[in-house]
Amino acid sequence: xxxxxxxxxxxxxxxxxxxxxxxxxxxxxxxxxxxxxxxxxxxxxxxxxxxxxxxxxxxxxxxxxxxxxxxxxxxxxxxxxxxxxxxxxxxxxxxxxxxxxxxxxxxxxxxxxxxxxxxxxxxxxxxxxxxxxxxxxxxxxxxxxxxxxxxxxxxxxxxxxxxxxxxxxxxxxxxxxxxxxxxxxxxxxxxxxxxxxxxxxxxxxxxxxxxxxxxxxxxxxxxxxxxxxxxxxxxxxxxxxxxxxxxxxxxxxxxxxxxxxxxxxxxxxxxxxxxxxxxxxxxxxxxxxxxxxxxxxxxxxxxxxxxxxxxxxxxxxxx
Length: 319
Known about the structure:
Layout: H1 2-21, E1 55-75, H2 84-87, E2 93-106, E3 109-121, E4 125-126, E5 131-133, E6 138-140, E7 145-165, E8 169-188, E9 210-231, E10 234-243, E11 254-267, E12 270-284, H3 286-290, E13 300-318
């Protein structure tokens, strides 16, 4: 008799558990609308929110790049190519920041902008070769003490086509223009080498500080952005912008920035961005780049190349 009662209790308990486990129609997980006329809540919003237009997204992150670069600016015979990190004693890890913004104007259209800057100033170091920079030029013979500076800046302005934008997925493609600038400074320190007769150092320069910039406008700047919230509070993202062609005279120029990482949602509209990035590029005069036209003593070189990458940490705010 007891066995029968126990069996009946087990059966009733099993039925009750099955009834509890039955899915509630009202608690179904949110599904993206398949109606092309119906817009979902956008990326960064709660699923039950109403879509908002216009919408603004702003990101500010601290970045640091382990950078390798080369630079040349000046007339043929009075300038040479050098590595600011190795030859001027600049630290290879270069800190900076990145600022990006996007304004969604319509379901499939947004305007965006991105700017990053990394810079470094080195301490006093003795150079091992003869370096000349600028039109004067500024010259540092072997053994001269110098300090150096370096600054890399890049800004992109784009129109963005939004392929998907809901609480789970954001995907977009962009096109626009990019401005890039690479600056190097070299400042000889006392004691200065004695000037030979004629008032010029052996390479034709002077012991004077100088700072030179190579810059270019590039178009088109082609970009992609994809983010996926695989968890209500955690997402992954991939972001890339590459600029391939420049205007006269720096036809040989290009620049790119590629990012990837995680987005941790604190609450609706506010995320912590943790990732890594890679930047690369070059600024070249067309004659420098292609070497199709022989250079003479009047030719001025405008050259800069760089590649590097590192960590990124910051905040993203969406409203």
